[in-house]
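REVIEWER CHECKLIST
Item 1: Sequence provided? yes
Item 2: Single chain? yes
Item 3: Sequence as submitted:
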Amino acid sequence: MNIVFVASECVPFASTGGLGDVVGALPKALADQGHQVIRILPLYRSIREGGFAMERLGLTLEIPVGLMRLHGEVFLTRHDGVDTYLIRRDEFFDRSHLYSMAHRDYDDNFSRFIFFQKAAVELMDRLGLAADIVHGHDWQAGLLPFYLRHGVMGTGRAAPVPRTLFTIHNLAYQGIFPGSDFPLTGLPYSCFTTEGGMEFYGQISCMKAGIITADRVSTVSPTYAQEICTEEGGMGLQGVLSARGGAVTGLLNGIDAKNWDPATDSSIKSTYDLQSVTEGKAANKLHVQRKMKLPQKSDRPLIGMISRLTEQKGIDLLMEVMPELMKLDLQFVLLGSGAEAYEEACRQWPELWPDTCAVRIGFDVKLAHRLYAGCDLMLVPSAFEPCGLSQMYAMRYGTLPVVHRTGGLVDTVIDETEQPGEGTGFSFAPLEAESFLDAIVRGCEAWSDESLRLAMQQRCMSRDASWSASAVEYERLYNETLSGSIP
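Item 4: Structure as written out by the authors:
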């Protein structure tokens, strides 16, 4: 198949989270299976300054946005065997952050991504790219099916309309803008309707546009695909999603099994595999304790959490349980950043519990690898989680995850208490302090049983979470999309 990915971010070029991981890894896995895959991204400042080898194609696109005619220059780079086209317009993309700064969205985000989506379609036409599937991601690509049908001028498009897949990575970010901004799209007013259009309570919803207009819709775990069709998890779009019925599918993300491999990881103190997990984790645990200035004790569990400090990720729940958690015979390390109030609260913990708690505010990739290798348990108490990567990284390193029973966490972690002899971690529900603490205690008890600990660690490390496995499922979904079949 000829597949075109259109997305606002991608590892290693520019990324804020799981979306970037998917767009970075899935195209390579698909290319390895013999498909022709390209990516189209904005050319952000971080890409220009990132040392990537880029070719200027000498191709300039003229894109209408409202009454303006804006020019964009096209560059080409290649990474992991996948060609990536980069759309440059410094007015929109020469910024220090991708979407917002100081926790406030850029005022021109709608214009920025109208320009980008139109530029992607115009580039496909100028290059004569005959895509079988155009795969758009999140609200920043939600209008893409409209432009593939109506063209960048909104008056029609000569090229055949390819099949489209729209992936929801996080329904919480919907791309909501004032209805008065609709003329910026250049689309016919028939696209601004409640039925079959982007109108959403008088406003524009880019997420709704993608859900309604794409041939198929996917999200990043089977359970999350079910949750977003409910009033509790649908964030106002549950009716729109439910109306698509079987056209909405959940496929689990994968991880980069080469980059996250305890047998070859140069970031950790001691590499290890299934046979040497006990010795390897013990050495890495002592290294983490030393680096984080905690007493080097091998006889108590070391619990970690690596996360954005946001309400979604469960930081409020962690703050609630910390006094009780610190009464247990364990150590705790936190690596993360987020809202200033959360950061300030977390900074106080090592002062309150100097021998049992260490906190590092910020994000340090090397330290994250060390924590996954050195910790015994990893906390993932997200209020909701479309897929989640932390629990999969943890399992890859034989670290037992403790997760809230939601979204992709349900689909990736088997609770040992519920399925003895099959567990890869521990889960809890409801999202309350008592059940969270109970799951942590169960995890600590399992860690204290050496034979159970080893069995669970080896089950975790044996789990296939690679992108090659996920790519097979995407290939199936692409084929269904091309055939027009819905299971």
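Item 5: Key structural point noted by reviewer: The first helix runs from residue 18 to 32.
Item 6: Recommendation: ____
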